[in-house]
Amino acid sequence: MLYCEKCGQKVADEALLWRCECGGALACDDTGFNFNPNPKLPGIWRYASSLPVACPETPVTLGEGMTPLAECIWDYGRGKAAVKCKFDALNPTGSYKDRGIAVQITRLKELGLKKLVEDSSGNAGAAMAAYSAAAGIECDIFVPAYTSEGKCVQIAAYGANLRRIPGTRETTTIAAEKAAESVYYASHNWNPYFPQGIKTYAFEIFEQAAGVAPDNIIVPAGQGSLVNGAWKGFTEIARSGKSSATPRIFGVQSANCAPLYEAWAHGEDKPRVIDKKDTIAEGIASASPVHGEAVLKTVRESGGSFVAVSEKEIWESFTRLASMGFYVEPTSAAAFAGLTTLLREGTIKPDEYTVVFLSGSGLKATDKIMQLRANPPE
Amino acid sequence: MLYCEKCGQKVADEALLWRCECGGALACDDTGFNFNPNPKLPGIWRYASSLPVACPETPVTLGEGMTPLAECIWDYGRGKAAVKCKFDALNPTGSYKDRGIAVQITRLKELGLKKLVEDSSGNAGAAMAAYSAAAGIECDIFVPAYTSEGKCVQIAAYGANLRRIPGTRETTTIAAEKAAESVYYASHNWNPYFPQGIKTYAFEIFEQAAGVAPDNIIVPAGQGSLVNGAWKGFTEIARSGKSSATPRIFGVQSANCAPLYEAWAHGEDKPRVIDKKDTIAEGIASASPVHGEAVLKTVRESGGSFVAVSEKEIWESFTRLASMGFYVEPTSAAAFAGLTTLLREGTIKPDEYTVVFLSGSGLKATDKIMQLRANPPE
After folding, report:
1. How far apart are CA B3 and CA A340, in angstroms?
2. I want to staple A142 with a disulfide (CB 3.0 to 4.6 A). Which of A135, A176, B50, B258 is the partner?
3. B146 band by pLDDT with thresholds 50, 70 and 90
4. What's the ipTM?
5. Other CB atoms closer than 10 Å to residue B37's CB: what's the count?
6. Which residues pair with A82 in a beta bridge?
7. Residue numbers in B near A134 (CB within 8 A)
8. From the list B133, B156, B363, which residue is nearest A363 (CB)?
């Protein structure tokens, strides 16, 4: 059963609405979910008791989840800090989006869906194309024309209908919503099942550290699904009585597109209307996050904050990560640029237990990385 | 302690020789190793009791191993077969080579190595660059000029000195061996530690299927390290008394470069001297496999065989895999092309338990995949 986050209206899954009639976003009622891992099931499906699917034993799966929690010594310029990386680029399509899309597509298949439309800056589009292919669901994927070549080729190879839309990320969304007048709009940003899959990364971090919650989790934040996922996961663990601690959650934005950071810096409750500029962190170039208000509230409740980082800082973090063996897309490097800021300003102490999230593979951004190596941001 | 596979001479690890003075390849004496997983250690390091390193608690690691064993229904034209994919593209640098290189670099670091040279068709080079970076070892990587752009950018990003050599894979090896006159030659094809890491994939397949050995394992075969790895792993499991069954092992080669298949087809013990042609399966384009004789012997002992597949068959398998959600490099697709052949000729039955190995990520081969989509092999 779903409910509207805005008006509270209850909606049956079977209605296959992408949002409430009032315009609000739909969410799963997850109050009955209980963190209770089943080690016999693979990947994210070991958390079946926390997922909104009828038959978790027969999911649409490509092997998502149980990505490494790797160790890393980070030099932040004034010292070094031992942190852990949740290396979620190592999911089947190369990004963390697989967690959410696997749950979303499994549920949509159960509900009998045959065709969908999605818009994405690239990673969610690749995930949607892959899982739709695995489920036998036809899909149209709209991406901004500036999306990395690697992501576009990948989406097309899965057999999806790829539509490259000139203009901003927001223009792409408008085009997809137009197409969705006749086809189910599976937008991961609106979808109620997607966040339930994303939260599994928090469960894994908890289990991989033998049942210890981190002091801090640092994630790249565009729409803020990783912020909400961490909070959802750790509050569910707390509710199950397995841990009383929850981490502080830090969302990192590109200074060139920072509606959440700007709101935070001004003590506001809603994302700021911003004048968006280009950023190499294409995965978090979201000017109008759908759940922005909830994301701001979550970060506040967790005791964390938002950070904005420059293009130069993102690129420097990319090169430093690569020189340590972690090859990620620039969006992921933004999280480490944020770590540097948080360590320097003393918000995070080097001896705390901090997990930094690596969201997508560098292999998806070969063309961008070549350009950036030739012409680094100044 | 190492020994020469050719003359039997014992060699101390500390000598840091890349091969025996007689020209033979060195191997680890692994008779004392015992399959005895330690679930408290992450990834491949849970098999510490089977690895030739002094301190497996402090490895050079990026989170390698414990990749998914995903399910897949394969249409082979005359029916369908349920098989499992070992999705080893989901290792830190995007290929299975990380298993071997992680062990190799961990051991070389323990031995005090500061600089190395390696040659590779791309995947091992990327792995070597990444783990050398993580270990603080300087490295020069020689690759054939035809290597995918994605692999080259990745190798350079890790901070390795990338050398692109015009000509064949073999020309690249000659250039590397020349450079190795003054620097340690870490060639994964010759290295004695590398195969010990590769075998961990067999351990994982065994554990992920709750202690059941497959009837068949199908791997792409160039040098044959996956053939040897499977055999080494499953015989070690058998020796430990945990299972009496060992799988039949099938090595798949491109018909355009098939020295092992040609030898097999002619009932010979040594790789054939072949007239090598270009293949889209660049990862198995090895005309003169270093351990070829041992690889042929292993396949025979296991009860398996070799298969050669055409460019067209490899590409068709690539597109079919992608249409099921598995986006791999063409080399990996060769293994599924081999599965089709083996099922059609009745060597493998659809109801047997078969595991097919997916060795590398499609994200590494964006440029090649674009070209192939525009001009598919005929």
Report:
1. 48
2. A176
3. confident
4. 0.96
5. 16
6. A73
7. 324-325
8. B363
